[in-house]
Amino acid sequence: MNEDIIQAAFNIGGCIAISSSIWKLYHQKIVRGIHWPMMIFFMSWSSYNIYFYGHLVQNYSFYAGFTILTAEIIYLYLLLYYTYIEKKSDSYSSYLEEYEEKAISGSLSKTEQRPMTAPEYFGNRTNSVPRFLGKSPLKFISSRKTTRK
Questions:
Q1: 52 compared with 94, residue with greater pLDDT
Q2: 106 membership: H or E segment, kind and range
Q3: Radius of gyration, CA atoms only, the chain
């Protein structure tokens, strides 16, 4: 067995390991304990490896490098997506808590007689967010229609 095949096996093993993290994150939908610089470092290293393996004409490692890079991109995307959703829901939750405190203390103004709904609260700020962020990214990807000729 030559070194190219061994390196490709390590890359595919790394892809499988990252895929298990993707699966767990997709089902838990919550981000905890992730060190962002580490993720960016390993993704940039995988990007460089694709160039490096191509330069060395190590074809198996070159193609296996795409698998681990793709897994890292998907994982980073899900991390950013679920962090964004959590922060967005936290800001609305804190607004509702403040509203409840005002209602209990009786310090509501006449314009605040009912709490705002989430679309009212976020207003135009959601217009700058891509449309697919309203649903699960994997459902968005699978729901896209592809036409084959």
A1: 52
A2: none
A3: 22
pTM across the whole model: 0.64
**Alpha carbon 27 to chain centroid distance?**
13
Q: How many residues are present in the chain?
A: 149
67 in Cβ contact with 11 (< 8 Å) = yes
Can you tell me the distance from the alpha carbon of 57 to that of 132, in angstroms, rounded to the nearest whole number? 39
Give SS3 for 5: helix
Structure tokens at 113: 């007689």
Buried b (16+ CB within 10 A) or exposed e, 89-119: eeeeeeeeeeeeeeeeeeeeeeeeeebeeee
Residue 100 token pair? 């409840």
For residue 123, which amino acid is it?
G
The stretches of 106-144 forming alpha helices (DSSP H) are 118-122, 137-143
